[in-house]
Amino acid sequence: MKRREEEEKQRKTTGQSPEEDQRRTSTQSKEEEEAASEQKGASAAADDDDEEAKKKERKCVPGIIYLGHIPPRLRPKHLRNLLSAYGEIGRIFLQPEDRQVRRKKKKSGSRRCDFTEGWVEFRDKRVAKRVALSLHNTPMGTKKRQRFFSDLWNIKYLHRFHWTHLSERLAYEQTVLQQRLRAEVSQAKKETSFYLNNVEKSAHLEHLRKKRQRDGEQVEEKTWDFTQRQTEEEIQKKKKKKKDSITQKRLNKARLMQQESKSNVSLLAKIFNSNQSE
Is 128's pLDDT higher than 70? Predict the structure, then answer.
């Protein structure tokens, strides 16, 4: 009721008819509906864009390839330059050579540190699969004058392999190496302590022996009871004697068998001869 009274007052003041008011209200409602529909369309488009972005993020799963051969003087920056042409690259790790190999190289005069194997992470695993299939057993360089043209790619795609697996493996290898070094150090300490204790014992025994000699007591010289290991010639002679004895036994047995057979033949001959005479 109050709204109607207010609307009638406004009509009287403005001098507008009720038909014009209806038209104005209808136009306003249409404009409001159009604005609401536009807002809905914009929100739906934004939701679609967000869903597509989420799908792309879900689909973009990183993939890792394994390099079984790393040529000399190849560094991570060279590897990144070679493989970045095929797709976006994340992390790269190259396994350096063993310490013994590096020590030998230092002794020979070369301070160069080379790598034995490597792992490369691509942002998309589909790209990593394509790279592993297409580049395996192909030259590293595209032109003959390039640095690594004579070397071949040795690539394998690691299925369901994550970078955390590699870090765990490296941590495990590091702990194993530390444990081995600790065991070697402890063994060396035990050997040195055993040697020093024996040296002290021998010095003490020598001091006692000299003291007894000064006092005029009879000192028995200690002799080591041990049997020397047989030489190769003695082992061969022993084997030869054994073989000769075996052959001699066999010959004697064969002679006895011959003699028995002869005696049997003579007996049979006597028996047959006696039968014929009768």
Answer: yes
**CA separation for the pair 79, 51 (Å, rounded):** 35
Asked whether the beta carbons of 67 and 119 are under 8 A apart, the reply is yes
What is the Cα–Cα distance from 21 to 24, expressed in whole angstroms?
A: 5
**Does domain 63-161 sit in CATH 3.40.50.10330?**
no
Instruction: Dump pLDDT digits (tens) for 210-219.
Output: 888 887 777 6
| Boundaries of every domain in the chain | 63-161, 163-212
Contacts of 137 (CB under 8 A, 6+ apart): 152, 153, 154
Check pLDDT > 90 for residue 122. yes
Please give the backbone phi and psi of residue 103, each rounded to the nearest 5 degrees, phi first: -65, -45
63-67 and 89-96: which strand pairing?
Answer: unpaired
CB-CB contact of 156 with 68 (8 Å): yes
Between 122 and 42, residue with greater pLDDT: 122
Between the CA of residue 263 and those of 250, 270, 275, 276, 277, what are the distances in Å?
20, 11, 19, 20, 21
> Torsions phi, psi of 60, nearest 5?
-80, 80
Task: Spell out where the chain has E strands.
Answer: 63-67, 89-96, 115-122, 155-158
Residue-wise pLDDT tens digits, 175-191:
988 899 899 999 999 99
Measured from the Cβ of residue 147, the count of other Cβ atoms closer than 10 Å reads 13
The structure tokens listed for 15 are 């001098």
Which tokens go with 125? Answer: 């695993």
Residue 189 CA: distances (Å) to CA of 177, 184, 202: 18, 9, 20
Q: Which residue has the tokens 């799908």?
A: 55
What is the pLDDT at residue 41?
Answer: 58
Name the β-bridge partners of 119: 66, 93
The count of residues in the chain is 278
Burial of 92 (0-12, 13-18, 19+ CB in 10 A): middle
